[in-house]
Design brief:
about 230 residues; alpha/beta; Rossmann fold; 2 domains; six-stranded mixed sheet; four-stranded antiparallel sheet; about 30% helix
Length: about 230
Amino acid sequence: MLAVQQLEAGYGESVILRDVTLKVKPGQVVCLLGRNGVGKTTLMKSIMGVLKARKGKVSYKEMDMTRRSPGDRAKQGIGYVPQGREIFAQLSVFENVLLGLEASREKKREIPAAAIAQFPVLPTMYSRRGGDLSGGQQQQLAFARALASEPDMLLLDEPCEGIQPSIVDDIRDVIRLIKADGRTAILLAEQSLEFVKSVGDYFYILEKGSIAWEGGLESLDDEVIRHYLTV
């Protein structure tokens, strides 16, 4: 479904990603691991088109997306929950979720029930400004906004960062439901090893901007964790 081939990307004169290659199959949850500053967010931005690739290729459903805009990628079925959530603080919760419909491949006027079914608190807050929500509530809102377009591919960048355990559990449940449904693939960048091991099918570890290790859950043993992830 998603294929990244020999990707190079960075900021200004700095090269952050070098020769990154990975794949995400339909219905699969692929987890991207690595210490802080190794390039996980840069990779997510490059896949979404927020950051232009300098070299390499990003393919989605066998279409070359490397030079396409973020909006075009979204309309092709890629949903994105960025690190930091990027909620529109002055817009209402309802308006924030409605923005997700802009990326829908079909012109929808109503928010799909499935987009908010796992976040029942959100409809009770529709009239509140997005900026008035707690960090955990904003994360739920960002998740619902991405799901509103009913994507086939979901990019999740550090969804558990800085939020309370109860909402982390909610997000885990949503990922598991999406996985069980089998229609949406997920690429998840996350620091919490316990979290990714509870939802992931396949794992990549970034080190110094390159893929240093990859494998299934059974291969993600203590030696690998100690070598690549322990601070």
